[in-house]
Amino acid sequence: MLPLESGGLQLGPLLPEHIEELFVGIALFVIIYLVIWKKVVPMFEKTYAERTAAIQGGIEKAEAAQAEAAAALEEYKAQLATAREEASRIREEAKAQGAAILADMRQQATEESSRLLANAKAQIDAERAAAVNELRSEIGGLATTLAGRIVGESLDDDERARRTVERFIADLESQTAEHA
To answer: Do 147 and 164 touch, CB atoms closer than 8 A?
Structure first.
């Protein structure tokens, strides 16, 4: 019998009946271990390396995409800031143009007003001068007729009548100037 049985170590059903079985089992274990070590483990290592590379590549792609998105965001922000600055500049230019147009319109209105006022004054002066001349001739005729009736003689002499009328109008103007 086997020395394992007598030693007090009880292996139960694992105890081989023949010692050769133990050596064959150990040899088979070593062969299976070597086959697994040479064939199966490299396949697992290769699969593990491929998966690690795929995961690492995915992480790198994600980081690259994130960096690209951040760069695009910064570019967008810069373009937005530029657009805001340009819009502000355009608003300021529009305000300046509006103020210039308003000032130009005011100047034109002032010039037009001055021109209309000057034309009105000139027209009034012309009408006044015409009215004064008409009144002088009418008053002159009336004054000559009246003076002729008062004096009792005819004042048909044009030169004398003109002098009399001018003296009469000068007296009226001086009286008007004194009362004003």
So the answer is: yes
